[in-house]
Amino acid sequence: MSSEGNTEYSASAMLHLFCCICNSIFLPDAPPEADPVATPCGHVYHRDCIERVIQSDVHSQPQCHVCAAPLPAAEELLKLFIAFEESDYDKKIKDAVHEATSYGDRSLDAAAAEAECRDKIRVLQSEQEYNVTMLASLETEWSAIEKMNLAAQQRMKDLEGDLADAERQIKELEEQMRAA
Ligand SMILES: [Zn+2]
Ligand SMILES: [Zn+2]
Question: Does any domain span residue 36?
Answer without folding.
Answer: yes
